[in-house]
Amino acid sequence: MNKVLKIGIMGLLLLPVQRSQAQYQVVTTVIKKVIKAIDLQVQRLQNKTIWLQNAQKTLENELAKFRLDEISNWTEKQKKQYEEYYQELRKVRSVIAYYQRIRDLGQTQAALIGEYRRAWQLFRTDKHFRPEELAEMERIYLGILNASARNLEQILLVINPGRTQMTDQQRLEMINDAGDRLEENFADLKQYNNQNMAFSLQRSKGLDELRTLKKYYGLH
Predict the structure, then answer these.
(1) What is the DSSP letter of 14?
(2) Could you read off the pLDDT of 39-55 as tens digits, one per residue?
(3) Distance of CA 203 to the CA centre of its chain
(4) Which phi-psi region, left, alpha or beta, contains residue 206 (left: φ > 0; alpha: ψ -120 to 50)?
(5) pLDDT digits (tens, 9 = 90+) for 95-113
(6) What is the top-level taxon of the source organism (predicted)?
(7) 217 vs 158: CA distance, rounded Å
């Protein structure tokens, strides 16, 4: 799953921005499939968490029946079982957080691509932008897309157990770091889109054209 996602997204984001929009649809579809697979995995883990919580509660209830002076007589097997349930519960919860973060970042990447596609289609047909301005837009968009690709590649590297030796906590921290940068890429993209829309509105001539432009960009 990781290999497919990596090949699809890296291949897309390294292409010139003026390539067919069908390429972007392919990658968006791949990301959606990955998100669905992660959703199923999270559901399985959540079911396991419920089972572990019930088992833990049963053991805690049994423990509560003992008086303090009898706890020392609790068998080693029971204590070990309780510790194993607790450790497994913590592990499963950690894995759920791990998968949910990856899922959220997959959605962020898909949203970033979708936002770029929508904005670029509008800007390149807006008569208020000169060819050299569109060329500059293209350069900046490509920079943002490539930066997001590098951050996503870092995430895919971290979640590959065969390539990186670290604890689950270390992996989650690195995923969060790369994810924060990916979210910054998305914020930069949206800010740049808003800036370009503002430029176009400023160049409108008269209220009628201004209203038409606002409708064109979906502004109210």
Answers:
(1) T
(2) 665 566 556 556 555 55
(3) 36
(4) left
(5) 667 777 877 888 888 888 8
(6) Bacteria
(7) 39
| Whether the model pTM is above 0.70 | no
Q: What percent of the chain has pLDDT over 70?
A: 53
3-class DSSP state for residue 163? coil
Q: Which sequence spans correspond to the domains of the chain? A: 2-216
DSSP 113-137: HHHHHHHHHHHTT-TTS-HHHHHHH
Ranked by mean pLDDT, the top range of 21-35, 110-124, 188-202 is 188-202
Query: What is the rounded CA–CA span in Å between residue 110 and residue 113?
Result: 5
Which residues, 6 or more positions from 195, have their beta carbon under 8 angstroms from its beta carbon?
none
Read off the tokens for 21: 């929009």
3-state class of 168 per DSSP?
helix
Tokens of residue 46, six digits = 């959540």
Q: Residue 48: CB partners within 8 Å, gap ≥ 6?
A: 92
What is the amino acid identity at position 33? K
- Determine the Cα–Cα distance for residues 44 and 42; give it in Å rounded to an integer: 5
